[in-house]
Amino acid sequence: MGRILVLGGTGFVGRAVCEQLARRSSSSRTVVPTRQLPRGNTIRLLPTVDLVEADVHDSSTLQRLLQGCDAVINLVAILHGSEAAFQRVHVELPRQLVNACHGAGVRRLVHVSALGVGPDAPSLYLRSKTAGEAVLSTSGLDVTVLRPSVIFGAQDRFLNLFARLQSVAPLMPLAGSQAPFQPVWVDDVAAAVVQALDTPAAIGQTFECTGPGVYTLSELVRLAGRWAGHERMQIALPGWAGWLQAAAMELLPGEPLMSRDNLQSMQVPNVATPGMPGLAALGITAAALEAVAPTYLGDLFQRPDLDRFRATRS
Q1: Which CATH number do you get for residue 105?
Q2: What is the spatial distance between Cα 240 and Cα 200, in angstroms, rounded to a whole number?
Q3: I want to staple 196 with a disulfide (CB 3.0 to 4.6 A). Which of 103, 144, 255, 258 is the partner?
Q4: Is residue 205 situated within a structural domain?
Q5: Distance between CA atoms of residues 127 and 115, nearest Å
Q6: Residue 306 lies inside a defined structural domain of this protein
Q7: Does residue 275 come out as left (phi exceeding 0), alpha (psi in the -120 to 50 range) or beta?
Q8: 108-112 and 71-74 as β-strands: parallel, antiparallel, unpaired?
Q9: Following CA atoms 32, 33, 34, 37 in sequence, which dihedral angle do they give, to the nearest 10 degrees?
């Protein structure tokens, strides 16, 4: 494929996908739209990537971006927001994308969703992801869906967050401490996106992207603190206390560390479904958390942004 449009290409997963696409072929082009051209983003250095300032939520812009493309990858997602925000990003954007693909004559689409989707899922996040998948399933396009568990990597907002919190807090009050996760490395998810794109047999299929190990949230927080050198005692919060904590965090400025909708999502085990195809079906051997995370969490507190983070928590 000579020209690929990547929606969400400047994000955490998107950067890894663009790097994988650059390694895959030096002759193809990757088009990455962004509301504002980022400074210091590593994908600016990739010779096969074209960054374009554009609003992908505008239908005419989306169709223009798709002109001349052979495929599109949709990575756009949010973790926090109102019901309207989830609807706009997870449902309306896929619907606009389907219409734009038909208008531009683009048939191939790889879409990253989430584990735990279902019409009766307990959270707005998961129900909106379910509705977005439904839009694609009836689109008439050549669609592959990937459902990752929580994704870790050097720039993640999961293990890094818990490691940083433990560097400034004497103990960790933790809601949903026994919620199970099966973390997957960002490079493995990116490899799955590219492999699915290049595999005709993946059309019409859904793949679950998980790592080899299952951990509770409490175990993941403990490991993040240990590998970063700041492991703290945890206090498992009962449901009502966790709910109040999340509600209070939603009132803080900026993106919340935790929301009530996040807690609702954690009611669904974030682990692989027996019988569903996973990374192995795409020829990928998932990296273990223990093989990757210590290498970046151990260097976390040499990073120049730590003082700024501590200042915001003081």
Answers
A1: 3.40.50.720
A2: 48
A3: 144
A4: yes
A5: 11
A6: no
A7: left
A8: parallel
A9: 70
Q: Which domain holds residue 131?
A: 3-151+184-209
Strand partners, 144: 110
Q: In this predicted structure, what is the pLDDT of residue 304?
A: 46
Residue 314: the pLDDT is 40
Cβ pair 33, 65 in contact under 8 A: yes
The answer to the question of residue 85 being in a domain is: yes
CA distances from 150 to 77, 186, 207, 303 (A): 13, 9, 15, 23
| Cβ neighbours around 264 below 10 Å, total | 19
Report the C-alpha gap between 116 and 264 in whole angstroms. 11
Q: How many structural domains compose the chain?
A: 1
Q: How large is the greatest C-alpha to C-alpha distance in the chain, in angstroms? A: 57
Residue 307 counted as domain residue? no
Which stretches of the chain are DSSP H helices?
12-24, 59-66, 83-87, 93-104, 124-137, 159-168, 186-197, 217-228, 239-250, 260-265, 289-297, 306-313
Q: What is the mean pLDDT of each run of 10 residues along the chain (314 residues)?
A: 91 93 82 79 74 92 95 96 96 97 96 95 96 96 98 94 91 94 97 96 97 97 94 94 91 86 95 96 97 87 47 45
Q: What is the pTM of this model?
A: 0.92
Q: Concatenated DSSP letters for 37-85?
A: PPSS-GGGG-TTEEEEE--TTSHHHHHHHHTT-SEEEE----SS--HHH
Q: Are 95 and 135 in contact (CB under 8 A)?
A: yes
Q: How far apart are the first and last CA of the chain?
A: 50
Number of neighbouring beta carbons within 10 Å of residue 17: 30
Question: Distance between CA atoms of 206 and 150, rounded to whole angstroms?
Answer: 17
Cα atoms in the 13 Å half-sphere on the side-chain side of 138: 6
Measure Cα distances from 275 to 261, 279, 281 in Å. 28, 13, 11
